[in-house]
Design brief:
Blueprint: H1 2-20, E1 39-46, E2 49-56, E3 61-65, H2 79-82, E4 87-91, H3 108-121, E5 127-132, H4 134-145, E6 150-156, H5 167-174, H6 183-192, H7 199-212, H8 218-222, E7 228-235, H9 240-249, E8 254-261, H10 264-267, H11 271-281
Parallel strand pairs: 3-4, 3-5, 5-6, 6-7, 7-8
Antiparallel strand pairs: 1-2, 2-4
């Protein structure tokens, strides 16, 4: 029995390591205070949260939604460019970044409701939306549940169901282990979290979310009327057929970014991503 337990545990750890490879790891050490834009930070009291947000730039609002275990800092390579012609609103979800966790499970539909409430709190009734990774899942829920608030919708490396991930990634999502994450991920969390000792709690709640989270249906996705853009990396953690189906349901084409993995096009070589976002959102350079 010990041997079986040990083998199963090592398999779970390996899956968690696979989950981190090409995930938010390269972005985790990026600090929001390195962004070369004027920032207006704040907290919004929404649905029991004190939800952290930042506003960069001026113009029509553009909402940024971060990925799992990440924060606004993951957008530091693209945010200054986007803020040249837009009022960029970047938020941090429950238990992520500066937003403290509360006594409720993590759910993407709840995050969408929290985000909608935050936008209304700061006086925004409609915005363009870009969601990366699990932030894309939140963006899809926002477009389904609050359609009047979404002008144009862009998602990248996003799934709408747990089965949309590659099998080894799905296994890592369902069985995450705090000790399997690189130190840089934990340290980045602890640097800004209101309760840095809750890192293990966040990882456990993310695993519970992966097991319990209901996917969006084809009917729900087809009901989205906002013009959409779907992006995936050449070597992503999303199954290619899943990304193609998402694009089909949103009545758009799938854009594949060449020579990229799940995180590199946001954290490293951002030119292709920015080019697509500028074109889709009609941004000026």
């Amino acid at each position: 029995m010990r041997l079986t337990t040990s083998i199963n545990q090592e398999a779970e750890w390996s899956n968690t390591r696979l989950l981190i490879q090409g995930w938010e790891r390269p972005m985790a050490n990026t600090r929001p205070d390195t962004m070369k834009t004027q920032v207006k930070p704040g907290y919004a009291p929404v649905n029991g949260l004190e939800m952290y947000y930042e506003i960069h730039g001026t113009g029509e609002p553009l909402l940024l939604l971060h990925g799992q275990f990440a924060s606004i800092g993951m957008f530091s390579r693209i945010l200054p460019a986007l803020a040249q012609s837009r009022r960029v609103v970047a938020v941090e979800q429950q238990g992520h970044g500066h937003t403290a966790d509360i006594d409720r499970p993590l759910r993407f539909e709840q995050m969408a409701d929290d985000t909608a409430a935050l936008l209304r709190h700061i006086g925004i009734e409609k915005a363009d939306v870009f969601g990366y990774s699990t932030g894309g899942w939140v963006a899809l829920h926002l477009a389904v549940s609050h359609p009047s608030m979404v002008r144009r919708l862009a998602v990248s490396s996003a799934a709408y169901d747990i089965d949309g991930y590659l099998p080894q990634i799905k296994a890592g999502l369902l069985n995450p282990r705090p000790e399997a994450f690189p130190e840089i991920v934990r340290e980045s969390y602890e640097r800004v979290a209101p309760k840095p000792e809750q890192w293990s709690t966040l990882v456990a709640k993310a695993g519970e979310q992966a097991a319990a989270q209901r996917g969006l249906t084809a009917a729900q996705l087809s009901s989205i009327t906002a013009p959409a853009l779907v992006i995936a990396a050449e070597r992503d953690v999303i199954r290619p057929e899943h990304a193609r189906e998402l694009a089909r349901l949103l009545r758009t084409e799938l854009v594949i970014l060449p020579n990229s993995d799940h995180s590199s096009y946001v954290s490293d070589n951002t030119a292709a991503l920015l080019s697509n976002l500028r074109t889709f959102f009609n941004l000026t350079e």
